[in-house]
Every structure is written in C-alpha cells, then in structure tokens.
C-alpha cells in the first residue's frame, strides 16, 4: 500500500486512513451493528456452510440471485443463460466489464461526479472518458454528437455521492437513445437498496428498449457483513462484449457460503429488514442535518438523497481543511474533490459523510463537525 500520510492519491486511499478508527465515517461500506435478526443469520453460518457443501453451486447461485433481485423489484433480471455473473465485489465486476468494453471501443461517456474508482478502472484499460453531467442525464435528450463519439454510456444510479436516482422515464429515454446509436448502456446500481425510487424494474425497461446493456449490482453497501459481499455483472443477450471470457480469465466463481448468506440477508430484508434499514439511515441523516443546523455557510446539497452517504457543502473552507481538522478529533470523513473526476475543483468545498454507521458514531462525529465548523 502506498504512503498516504501526506497526500492521498484517490478516495480509497483516504478511506484506508480511516479503517482503524472507531469514528470512521469515510467509506461507503456498511459498518453499523447487525440487527438481532441479522445476528441470527450469522449465528447460523455453520448450517449454511453444511447446506452449501451438499447442494450444487448453480442452485445456490440461482436462489441467491432470485432473493436479491426480487427484494429490490428487479423481477425481469435474466435468470437463465448465465447472464448474471457473480464476482467477489462490484469493483471486480467493473474491471471485467471495462476489459471487455475496451475490446470494442476506445471511449466512454461517464456520469460526473461519481466514485473515482469507476473512472480509475476505466482509464486503467485505456478508455478515454467523456464527462456527462448529472444534469444532462436527468434533463432532456443527450446530444447525438456525444453518443456518436462513445461506445458506451455509464451511469451510477443512485449516484455516489449525490444519491440522485435515474427515473424510469429517463432510463427508458436513455436506453432508446443508446439503442438508436448502438451505444452500450451500463448502470452501476450499488446503492439501489437504499432508495425505493430505484426499485422499479430496470431490467424490464432495458430489455424493452433493445439496447445493449450491462448492470453492475452490489450487495456490499447494504449489509454489515465484514466485506463478505457479491458484485453481480448482468448483461443483455445481445451485449456483444466478451464478458464471460474475461470473467473466466479472472475467476472461477464466488463462495457458495457467501451466496447463501446473501440469500438469507435478502430474505430477512424482504421480511421487514429493508424498511428497518431505511428508517435507520434516515435517522442518522436527521442526526447529521439537525446537528449542523444553523452553522454558517454549511448546507446539504442533496435534500432528496436516501443513499447511505450524505454530502455537506462547507462554504469558504475546503473539504480537505475540514477533513484535516476532523482528524484531530479522530473523526474520518471524505473530501469530495476526487468524486469530480474531470474537474476536481468543483468538489473542493464539500465533504461526504457515511451514514451506515452506529447512531452513536454519527452523533459523536456530528458534534465534532459542529465544533470544527464553528471555530
Ligand atoms: C458506486 C460504487 N460502485 C462501486 C464501488 C466499489 O465497491 P467495492 O469496493 O465493494 O468493490 C463503490 C465503492 O464505494 C461505489 O461507490
């Protein structure tokens, strides 16, 4: 790991610095305590292990897909034909997607801002990135000249860090435009679970459009499972990318134990756990917003966000200055400049706070933030 003491090079390097702190509100992974019914799933891992040893992997995998996709309203996901590839994480799915895409095009349109490991992975395979502003995606039609200049359009929805969700109507229109231009439409839906506005059936819309599409789903942001997670790489039958070949270059498959655990978490979520999680995140968001109310020059630019992260504009201070001052209180957040991968200066005055943390951590961090921002 490179030395990140002085100047972290990317967001994940900022996140490394926070990993050992009890007040790590930096990365977007889920780190709150398990609920009692989630704890009972973990207590039953030996039984899940015994079951996973006995059953064919394909069956375990299909059960896991069904539980997860159905939980989040994705009823038209392609259950057959090996079109859901299970990866260790969404970044691994992303790498497989990027390597596959690079065999067919040299340019991609990418939402701006978004989490910087997405542009980093895409650049890593030699793609030229064309920024597509969130406003453009959510506004009217995209410029045909843009669509002629790229082989793929990549959208994170809900977006990280803004929480912005692509509506069903906008997805339908983007998919139609991509179909017209022969452009692959790729979605990263890692934060889908937090926002019911992202639970309409995306696969029905994508399939109906006839466009070539890819979706990266992620269980890792939703449940505090100590990095035991799955990234699913899902694609259209006509995608025309060597996804299965590149997948086979990298992995044979994921752990049936992790697949079984994900199935159980999805079943628990469907039985009330997801609504409980939504209430928990909303509670932490309220703690943060209310705790900073009235602080001069501080505002929350994403009032509608339901994602497990919250942006904070810190006025004339830079996000980096506030990040440094918070470290003196052992509190770790994330300065936002690198989410703005094309123009970092646009994120220079904001900070991202992770909300998938215990209520007590969010309250303590909020108090530290108030101290730092009012001194
Ligand atoms: C939108 C998005 N996609 C993918 C990832 C990568 O997730 P992982 O580190 O679990 O591979 C992140 C990480 O925060 C993310 O925010």
Automatic annotation (TrEMBL):
UniProt cross-references to PANTHER family, sorted A to Z: HTH-TYPE TRANSCRIPTIONAL REGULATORY PROTEIN GABR
Protein name (database record): Aminotransferase class I/classII large domain-containing protein
Domain named Aminotransferase class I/classII large: residues: 85-366
Pfam families according to UniProt: Aminotran_1_2
Signal sequence interval, chain numbering: none
Keyword Methyltransferase: no
Domain of life: Bacteria
Transmembrane segments: none
This protein's record includes keyword Cytoplasm: no
Keyword line: Antibiotic biosynthesis
InterPro entries linked to this entry: Aminotransferase_I/II_large (IPR004839), Endura_MppP (IPR031020), HTH_trans_reg/aminotransferase (IPR051446), PyrdxlP-dep_Trfase (IPR015424), PyrdxlP-dep_Trfase_major (IPR015421), PyrdxlP-dep_Trfase_small (IPR015422)
């Amino acid at each position: 790991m490179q030395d990140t003491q002085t100047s972290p090079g990317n967001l994940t390097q900022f996140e490394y610095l926070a990993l050992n702190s009890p007040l790590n509100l930096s990365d977007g992974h889920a780190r709150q305590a398990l609920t009692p019914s989630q704890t009972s799933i973990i207590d039953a891992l030996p039984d899940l292990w015994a079951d996973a040893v006995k059953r064919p992997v394909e069956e375990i995998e299909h059960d896991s897909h069904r539980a997860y996709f159905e939980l989040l309203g994705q009823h038209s996901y392609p259950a057959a034909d090996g079109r859901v590839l299970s990866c260790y994480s969404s970044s691994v799915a992303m790498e497989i997607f990027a390597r596959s895409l690079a065999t067919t095009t040299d340019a991609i349109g990418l939402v701006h801002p978004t989490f910087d490991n997405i542009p980093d992975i895409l650049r890593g395979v030699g793609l030229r990135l064309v920024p597509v502003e969130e406003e453009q995606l959510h506004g009217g039609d995209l410029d045909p000249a843009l669509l002629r200049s790229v082989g793929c359009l990549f959208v994170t929805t809900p977006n990280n860090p803004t929480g912005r969700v692509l509506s069903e109507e906008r997805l339908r229109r983007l998919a139609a435009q991509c179909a017209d231009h022969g452009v692959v439409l790729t979605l990263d839906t890692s934060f889908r679970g937090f926002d019911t506005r992202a639970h309409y059936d995306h696969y029905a819309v994508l399939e109906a459009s006839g466009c070539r599409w890819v979706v990266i789903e992620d269980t890792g942001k939703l449940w505090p499972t100590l990095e035991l997670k799955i990234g699913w790489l899902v694609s259209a039958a006509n995608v025309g990318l060597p996804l299965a070949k590149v997948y086979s270059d990298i992995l044979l498959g994921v752990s049936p134990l992790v697949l079984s655990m994900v199935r159980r978490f999805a079943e628990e979520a469907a039985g009330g756990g997801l609504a409980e999680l939504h209430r928990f995140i909303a509670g932490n968001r309220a703690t943060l917003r209310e705790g900073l109310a009235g602080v001069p020059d501080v505002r929350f630019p994403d009032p509608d966000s339901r994602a497990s992260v919250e942006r904070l504009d810190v006025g004339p201070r830079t996000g980096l200055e506030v990040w440094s001052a918070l470290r003196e209180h052992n509190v770790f957040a994330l300065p936002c400049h690198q989410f703005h991968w094309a123009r970092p200066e646009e994120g220079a005055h904001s900070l991202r706070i992770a909300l998938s943390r215990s209520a007590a951590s969010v309250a303590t961090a909020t108090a530290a933030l108030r101290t730092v921002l009012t001194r």
